[in-house]
Design a protein that fits this description.
Helix content: over 70%
CATH architecture of the largest domain: Orthogonal Bundle
Distance between the termini: 6 Å
Largest sheet: none
CATH class of the largest domain: Mainly Alpha
CATH superfamily of the largest domain: MetI-like
Radius of gyration: 25 Å
Strand content: under 5%
Length: about 325
Amino acid sequence: MRKYIVKRLLLSVMILFCVSFIIYTILRCLPSSYVEHTAIQLAQAPGAKPYEEWLEQLNASYGLDKGILPGYLTWLSGAVRGQFGDSWKYTMPVLQKFNEVIWLSFVMGAIAFILELIIAIPLGVIAATKQYSRTDYAVTAGALVGISLPTFFFATILKLIFSVKLGWFDLYGLVGRDYAKLDAMGRFLDMANHLVLPITTLVIVSVGSLMRYTRTNMLEVLNADYIRTARAKGLSEKKVIYQHAFRNTLIPLVTIVGGSLPTLFSGALITETLFSIPGIGYTSYEAMRIGDIPFSMFYMSFMAVLTLAGNLISDILYAVVDPRVRIAD
């Protein structure tokens, strides 16, 4: 196991270098450029230098006058030392801006993911054990509705009903008008109130696929030979389902749990934008929209690290959950 983990880590480092170089190349080739917009604004000032001179000066100051490979090596030399530069859009160190917005998205993603597990796994098991019943049809129909609903449409419906019609929640923002006048508990409840609809949106549009995945795997396990043997031995249906079948259903679900690591930190771009939540999803979108290379490079490289880590965790958890699985050195 130890040798396997070391091999995977070394391979992951190589993959990370390749991915970060591809990301840097794409960002350098984007049609939108921060320096071009800035050069246009500076050139419009009375008595200012022409656009071409400003563009040349800004490219030189940001290192964009170099080729893609030399520019990437310059970025990489700073990245390995933990120096990612200043965000061009937010005019502050990249790590500082990242730390300001990441935890809000993480809390939203973690709460939504826990609720998905609590809702999807029991309903998927129930639907599988009562196949072709009304309960099964209801769960399947609900899962299909959740999968089919676009995020922007469902979020708009929630705001129309609970914000416009009923007035229970604010339409936008993370805090209310009287936030500064509230005590610590009041501020916490105010922020929690503003996160109800965004988290509900994340749960509903994501829970359907996990529910169907659980149901499908549970049905496959229930039709296995060892389940029929357990029933033939006279075990109660409850023991057969929850001690034998459900335990083996968890094995493929481990992949989803491990692979969900990046989603906890990636933010929800559409949801955060619709509800004006200043999380990492919306922040990174704004950075990429204007060509903020320092922030975009850090964020996407960070996501690449989490994806590689999630895959490694999934493989290790497979061996932990299923004793039949052995990872060869």
